[in-house]
Write a structure and sequence with these properties.
Elements (H helix, E strand, L loop, with lengths): L2 H28 L3 H12 L12 H63 L1
Amino acid sequence: MRRRHRLLIIAVLVMVFLVVAGTLFFMYAEGWTLVNSIYFTAMTITTIGYGDVVPTHDVSKLVATLYAVVSIPIAIFAFGILAENYFELRLARLERRMQEMLQKEKEIVRAVENNHTENDK
């Protein structure tokens, strides 16, 4: 497995862990529902932060602050790796298509040259 793919898998697993850990913590500490806890962690990780769901206990506020400081850079890293892999695949596909087109062009040129040499005889 290539290094970049390993990094992508690790980044996704860490993101899943962060979402699960944040969700479980806020469900317990704030008494939120599963949906509100996932929503809050997702809004924090993506830095959207609508402010409609906010921690109310001091401990939760401190954890939310540390959670943001840790999870936001990891999310940026994970999204960067994901984008890099996506564009790498697109570029490889484009290069293959260009090679196929060049090969077809060479075949056409050879066929035209062969046709001219046969006509010249």
